[in-house]
Amino acid sequence: MTAGEEQKKGSLRASIHDGLCWSVMSGLGESYISAYAVFLKALPIQLGIIAALPALAAAMSQHFGVYVLEKYKTRVPLLKVIVAIHGALWVPIACLGLFLTPSPQTTNIYLILLLVYFSFGGAANPIWSSLMGDLVPASSRGQYFALRNRLVSAVTFVSLIVGGYILQIWENFGEEAIGFLFIFLLAGVFRLCCVHFIEKHYDPPFETSLDEPFSFTDFIKATPRSNFAKFALFQGSVNFGLQFAAPFFSLFMLRELHFTYLEFTLQISMIIMGQILTFSHWGKLSDRFGTKRILSICTIGVSFTTLVWPITSNFYILMLNHIIAGSLWAGFNLSIGNFLYDAVSPPKRARCAAYVGIVNGIASISGALLGGLMLSLDWLAKIDIIPHFNFMLVFILSGIFRGLSALYFLPKIKEVRDVENITTKDFIFRVLAVRPFSGISYGVITSKRLPHQK
Asked: 373 is in which domain, residue-wise?
């Protein structure tokens, strides 16, 4: 094994530890961003903006990440600085609810802090994608990222439960602000721990394209003939449908169904449980059969999970629905990431990742604002055909938008790798043949070797 290969192997282990620290930050912090907004008395339209505008800021800041990467041509030092600032921003966010009275005006300050926070997170994304694309062998990307994502999801799950338990304790004392302060400060500490593990990454020489850098306008103009541009629009359209409803599930559960923080936590933790149970399965299927088939099944599947909400508000059925949704989103997100690595050459990878982020950001804010506007219509809320008619209409439309995205775009997208041929029927049987608990055992208990170390 050469020195470079040895360094790459150590980097992949460091990346898993970095991911585990990130997952604690995500479970204790980002998982409760919407709940914190509800606590701060956010209006429905503000919830939509909080879900979408920071995401757009993150998407737009990816272009800045590409700029500094192409200027300085080094990745690890840039990531260390950006991640350190990203972690430190949890301090003012954590203190907000303790020192200011919850109100729509306080929510506006919260939104400003989130814009800054997500901008730094977005700037790191193309740099990290470029680095990992150079470090992970193409032959085992599906399995490596499945292993990493499964471990990350497991720790996120535990962190989420711990965060909900802490909030429940302080809610019982009538001091939710202290609970949010505690979990958000912990989130910041663990994000700062990521800096230590990022420093352990090997930073191969950054390759720049000999071609002139292509602009975002060039990227969009290439859509009729570019497979990857069509893929970006597909991803954006799915995110439009997702964000049309996603920001309001927290509001619906906490205000309309009157779930406690612990009940709310159990619901959203089931999404992560679904991911943990199936990441390994999706990774193996991705390496063998490519990403397009997985995207087809998962996008159609998540189109139906939103349709459960108008049918029942039973706590346990909703938990099961969240497990199914989590498993489908696991396959979707894993395939989305792998498609980027497969379809784009290393010199263009950071720029393409940034442009996909911009498409997603624009689509997300459009969906969230339209969904929030619909929920803000008083006359719609007064229709009593079924309970919570305005929420149910938003959830149904969200599912329809996701399904239409799959039906329109996926036939236009081509698989970019040579993969095994398999009929749709046989592939569906392979998808349904998941053995979830053996996957947990392998990933969390017995795995000593990374996928590329066979």
From this structure: 16-202+216-444
